Amino acid sequence: MYILVAILAFGILIAAHEFGHFVVAKLCGVKVNEYSIGMGPALVSHQGGETLYSLRLLPIGGYCAMEGEDEDTGDERCFTRQPAIKRILILVAGSAMNFLLGFLILLGYFANWPNFVTNEVAATVEGFAYAENGIQAGDRIYSIDGHRVFYSADFSMYMDRAGDTVDMVVLRDGKKVTLKDYGLQPRVYDESQGLKYGLMFRAVEGTTLEKIKYSGYSAYNFVRMVWMSLGDLVRGSVGLDDMAGVVGIVGTINDVGQQVQEVTQSRTEALLRVAYLVAFIAVNLAVMNMLPIPALDGGRVFLLIVTSIIETVFHKKLDPKYEGYIHTAGMVALLGLMAVLMVSDILRIVR
User: Quick one: which of 27, 84, 97 has its CA closest to 318?
Assistant: First the structure.
């Protein structure tokens, strides 16, 4: 069941991404030849004005086919003839839609939460060794090693990645207090509450406004987690075995759904946890797609800015086909990486 849910979720995420391109392209006056939900053979199609709307067999994505995406077709409404700002808005719209979808999923996930745990220290537990030297009850944890902390979950995330000491800033009586090289080490203070750092944080009521705020901060935290993962990849802290392709992600969603259902005996709870994971994937797609890599929307935006600068300086319009060549090469490389990750996922399953 959860494998089917995962496949459907991927289809929705990609279709939503393409819908973002579609809506903004229409608003900017660009001709859209086809908007398709799904891939493969068409099950149902309808010609609505200049655009063919299709529902296709495979629920693994979709596409928005604009006139003249990679070359000037001579049509005044083709993509390549539009001003740079319009093209940038169209390109960014896909990732914006993924981020918005991730936020909305989180809003639904947190809809029934009665309260949320803030970054304000309500008390330090018995045996807390650092109360005299630093953190006190009433402090708000403002940042850890330069990373802003909004809720207790942020505190745990950055403390778990920290070294032996951290540079922490707390808000105390309305003023920032810096705790330089603060040695706050994890240990179990209260196993029933899972306390690792001896701090208890204040909870606030889950009002509608608080749910919206927490959902927004959670989506923002997903962005920070993606950047941290990219940093780990660049530094070599993670390798190919730590990365997953589509097969691996579908497997993870399936595992999460099954495990939560086994523990809670609730399919609803399992689907909620899967939804939370899908929200993370949606935000992940939004961030990754805006990286300045050829074939991705971020790469298109980057090259669009570069070519606009060149054309402004040299007063000569560049042929769009050369940019198309770059994106084609990038797509080949991207498909190669996806194939490698898929093989790695399958081998991991076999092992």
Answer: 84
Domain count, the chain: 1
- Specify whether the CB–CB gap between 203 and 116 falls below 8 A: yes
Annotated catalytic residue 18: yes
Choosing from 18, 69, 120, 323, which is the catalytic residue? Answer: 18
Confidence of residue 193 (pLDDT cuts 50, 70, 90): low
AA letter at 70: D
Assigned domain for 219 exists: no
The answer to whether the CB of 143 falls within 8 A of the CB of 171 is no
pLDDT digits (tens, 9 = 90+) for 106-152: 999 999 999 999 999 998 877 676 545 578 888 999 999 999 999 99
The pLDDT tens digits of the residues spanning 211-225 come to: 999 999 999 999 998
| Domain CATH for 142 | 2.30.42.10
Domain span holding position 134: 115-205
Give the closest residue to 148 by CA, choosing from 75, 221, 209.
221
Q: Is the residue at 194 inside a domain?
A: yes
Is the residue at 68 inside a domain? Answer: no
Provide Rg for the chain, Cα atoms: 24
Residue 273 lies in a domain: no
